[in-house]
C-alpha cells in the first residue's frame, strides 16, 4: 500500500471507531438517568449512608445554568467511549495487522478481547476499590464544622478521571506484550530496571489521579506494581513466541 492508501485506510478505521462511539452514546442516553443516579452517584450515596455521627456528609450541587444537561451529555459521551472500547481496539489492531507477521495476525481477536478485559478490569477496580476508599477518606478527614459541598461537575470529573486512568494503566500487560513481540522490550530489561520502574509508577499514579489525593495515588500505584510483575511474565512469553516465529 502507498502512503495515501494507508491514510485512506486509517480514515475508514477512524470513521468506524467514531460510529461505534456514537452508537454507544445513544445506548447510554437511553439509560442516562440510571447511569447517573444508580452508578455514578452511588459511591457518594453509600458513603453518606455509612458515615459515623459527627462527620459532614457530601452535598452535591449544580452551580451552572444547564449544568445538568451538559453533565448528562458528558456522561453519555464517556459512556459511549467505554462501551465501544472493544470496537476501538479492534480498529486499531486491524490497522496495525498488515505490519505484523502472518503468524501474529491470528491473535488479533484474542488481543482485542484481553485488551478490553484489562481496560474494563481497571475501570471496575477504580469503581469498587479506589472511589469508595478515596471518598471515605475525604468524608472523615478534617473537622465536621466545614461542610462538604461539592460542585457536581467537580465530583463527576473526579469519578470519571479515576476510572479512565485506572482503565488505561491496566493495559500495561498488553503494552508489554506488543513491545516484546516487536523486540523492543525484553524481560531482562524490565527486571534490571524494576526499582526505577517503581519510582516511575508512583509518579505516574500521582499524575493520573486528580488533585492531590494521596489515597487514590497509593491505591493506583499498588496494582500497577503488580501489573508490572505480570508484564515481566507476559514479556518473557511474548519474546519466546517471537523467537519461535523468527526461527520458523
Describe the structure.
Strands 1-2 form a two-stranded parallel ribbon. It contains twelve helices and two strands, in the order αααβααααβααααα. The two termini are 26 Å apart. The protein has two domains: 157 residues, no CATH class; 71 residues, no CATH class. By secondary structure, the chain is mainly alpha-helical.
Summarize the topology:
Elements: H1 3-30, H2 32-40, H3 42-50, E1 58-61, H4 67-83, H5 85-96, H6 102-105, H7 108-140, E2 148-151, H8 152-169, H9 172-181, H10 187-192, H11 194-208, H12 214-247
Parallel strand pairs: 1-2
List keywords for this structure.
mainly alpha, 12 helices, 3% strand
Structure class: mainly alpha
Query: Globular, elongated, flat, extended or rod-shaped: what is the shape?
Result: flat
Element order, helices and strands? Answer: HHHEHHHHEHHHHH
Distance from first to last alpha carbon? 26 Å
Biggest beta-sheet profile: 2 strands, parallel
Count every beta strand, where a strand is a DSSP E run of 2 or more residues.
2
What's the alpha carbon Rg, rounded to whole Å?
A: 21 Å
What is the domain total for the residues?
2
Report a brief summary of the structure.
The protein folds into 2 domains: 1-157, no CATH class; 171-241, no CATH class. The protein has 12 helices and 2 strands. It has helices spanning 3-30, 32-40, 42-50, 67-83, 85-96, 102-105, 108-140, 152-169, 172-181, 187-192, 194-208, 214-247; strands spanning 58-61, 148-151.
Amino acid at each position: 500500500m502507498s502512503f495515501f492508501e494507508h491514510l485512506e485506510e486509517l480514515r475508514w478505521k477512524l470513521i468506524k471507531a467514531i460510529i461505534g462511539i456514537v452508537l454507544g452514546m445513544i445506548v447510554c442516553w437511553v439509560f442516562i438517568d440510571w447511569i447517573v443516579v444508580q452508578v455514578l452517584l452511588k459511591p457518594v450515596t453509600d458513603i453518606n449512608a455509612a458515615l459515623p455521627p459527627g462527620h459532614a456528609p457530601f452535598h452535591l450541587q449544580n452551580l451552572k445554568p444547564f449544568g445538568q444537561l451538559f453533565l448528562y451529555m458528558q456522561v453519555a459521551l464517556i459512556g459511549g467511549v467505554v462501551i465501544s472500547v472493544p470496537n476501538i481496539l479492534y480498529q486499531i489492531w486491524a490497522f496495525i495487522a498488515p505490519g505484523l507477521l502472518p503468524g501474529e495476525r491470528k491473535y488479533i481477536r484474542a488481543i482485542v478481547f484481553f485488551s478490553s478485559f484489562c481496560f474494563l478490569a481497571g475501570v471496575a477496580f477504580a469503581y469498587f476499590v479506589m472511589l469508595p476508599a478515596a471518598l471515605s477518606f475525604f468524608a472523615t478527614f478534617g473537622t465536621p464544622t466545614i461542610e462538604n459541598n461539592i460542585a457536581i461537575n467537580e465530583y463527576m470529573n473526579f469519578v470519571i478521571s479515576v476510572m479512565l486512568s485506572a482503565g488505561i494503566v491496566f493495559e500495561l500487560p498488553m503494552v508489554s506484550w506488543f513491545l516484546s513481540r516487536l523486540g523492543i522490550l525484553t524481560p531482562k530489561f524490565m527486571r534490571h530496571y524494576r526499582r526505577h520502574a517503581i519510582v516511575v509508577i508512583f509518579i505516574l499514579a500521582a499524575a493520573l489521579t486528580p488533585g492531590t489525593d494521596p489515597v487514590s495515588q497509593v491505591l493506583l500505584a499498588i496494582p500497577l506494581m503488580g501489573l508490572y510483575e505480570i508484564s515481566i511474565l507476559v514479556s518473557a512469553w511474548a519474546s519466546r513466541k517471537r523467537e519461535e516465529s523468527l526461527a520458523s
